[in-house]
Amino acid sequence: MDGSVDGIRTILREIGVDEEELLPDRLLRAHLALDSTETVELETALRKRFGVEVDLWDKHDFTLAELDALISRAAPRRWPVIAGERAERYRREGLWRAERIDEIVLAHAASRPGAPALVCGERRLTHGELAAAVGAAARRLAALGVRRGSPVVVQLPNGVELVVLTLALSRLGAPPVLTPVTLRAFELEHIVSVTRPAALALPRRHARFDHLALGRALRDGHPGPEGPMALLVTGGRPEDAADTVDLTALCAPPDGPYEAGGEGEPAGPGDPAVCLLSNGTTGRPKVIPRLHEAYGHQLRHTPAVAGVGPDAIYLAVMPATHGFVLGCPGVLGTLSAGGTVVLGGSAEPAAAFELIEREGVTHTTLVPALAERWAEAASEPGTPDLSSLRVLQVGGARPHPRQIERIPEALGCRVQQCYGMSEGLLCYTALDDPDEVVLGTQGRPLSPADEILVLDDEGAPVADGGVGELLTRGPYTVAGYLGDPAADASAFTTDGFYRTGDLVRVHPSGALVVEGRTRDVVNRGGEKIPAAELDLLAAEHPAVAAAAAVAAPHPRFGEIVCLYVVPCAGRSLDLEDVRAFLRSRGLAGFKLPERLEVVDGLPYLGIGKVDKAALRRRAAAR
Fold first, then answer.
1. Residue 470: pLDDT band with limits 50, 70, 90
2. What residues contact residue 107 under an 8 Å CB cut-off, 6+ apart?
3. Is 67 helix (H, G, I), strand (E, B) or coil?
4. Mind spelling out the 3-state secondary structure of 125-173?
5. Averaged over 106-119, what is the pLDDT?
6. Is the pLDDT of residue 5 over 60?
7. Pairwise CA distance, residues 264 & 266, whole Å
8. Lesser CB count within 10 Å: N end or C end of the chain?
9. Which of 296, 290, 324 has the alpha carbon at shortest distance from 477?
10. Closest CA to 450 of 429, 470, 480
11. pLDDT digits (tens, 9 = 90+) for 370-425
């Protein structure tokens, strides 16, 4: 046995087990007489210190030696990878290349070093300065002990440090686990347990929340086998210096010319470049490793789809820790094309419009609700000059046509629908598609190598135009989650297809139309009702500002439709009025809502998605 037994012994001594009882062949329950409370305490400690998930109250009674074997197996992180013939084919066909994402993103530093790359408030970096800052940060991180294979949880708002740190960690093979600043202890405890990071990167305070206090609690509660996690902090104070690292200084360009070296062994093309998070609609966030050669395929192809080139100026006003803003093409794709990225701190029209005018922004991305607000605000007197804007990408949730049809006239730009997932597949409407496709579909797959299946409940392909669950695999769709075999078994087929959980149909144009979620379906006495369909139709009611349909329990039918609506200012709604409106739209009678809940606002999670789980819980409780 190796040294991990010493760690187990330490935990058991803390529980109260005598030293002489701690022998390798001793059974936890039969010999050491651990009760259910003590096994839970041991399970928690194993999870925090070693990243081991185990049920010690199962029928199998573990020995200390068996626990040591579990820890040994868990110690090397097993990054899920696409292997075998499919991986060989992707490499053979040039879909995967032997390059890291930092090489792709910083490719213009040599040919156009003086071209603008990043703008954040008064801070500006050229492509050459960005490359030098990334190299210097990688060297400084290596000096702190951050090395290949050790993730770093990055919970930062949009800023220069987020971009520089992400690229530096990717180069080192210490993948950044990109975490929204809105997550708190409940989610972060889980993320830290799964990833076992070498460091946490966070602001001292942000939006009136004390991130440093939470970081210290996470560090102290998760003592790793290689020592405590480092805390990399922006906005720190002198009194923080004893146990934190100044992240702004770490990410600063070098004082003189940058000289490569001192960074240790760099990442390989099959190593993880970044880790994204699932949106948490089915539980705590899952960690999604995106490998260099696969994510590189995405970064090489998304700029052209969005019309992004060296003259593009991309505005990131939503969190760049989300995959949609990070690389679709987003921040990284724009930089890889030689363009400029403007990092904004607010998606409010007043702040964003000022940046568009000042910086000559050409591209940006928004969720549907924000896109609708921008279109409304653009008609107000004194609106800044938005004439530089060319493309507004809308994604994160399916928009109803009313939310986006006004954008070309109001903002003077094209609309591009983007549909995808952090696990991989991306779909886009083309910039020259007719309105029918732009307004009514979620676009076509990014890559010709993307494979699409639309299957019914029995796993058979649906008829042309039929609705079924979307399954996909391709050169940039992942093979699994980090440290979550149960989720892998549920979400991935044995031949590598990802079960998206989205209900779709294929439009005659070849584009996908998202009709809802497999878990976002109301089963009324055997009749399946896609809730997203009702969301869109109800939102067309002139007195409805927003709507969300969920299943509510019913003693006879099992489930009925409960519709939550936010009324427009000064308007009132009742169930019969809404049902009459939906009937007038041609909706089948069995799909009509049987409960109406009028609320001041809908709950949201992730990046513009309605928290349907919260609404279902609320409906069930009444």
1. very high
2. 336, 338
3. helix
4. EEHHHHHHHHHHHHHHHHHCCCCCCCCEEECCCCCHHHHHHHHHHHHHC
5. 98
6. no
7. 6
8. C
9. 290
10. 470
11. 999 999 999 999 999 999 999 999 998 888 888 899 999 999 999 999 999 999 99
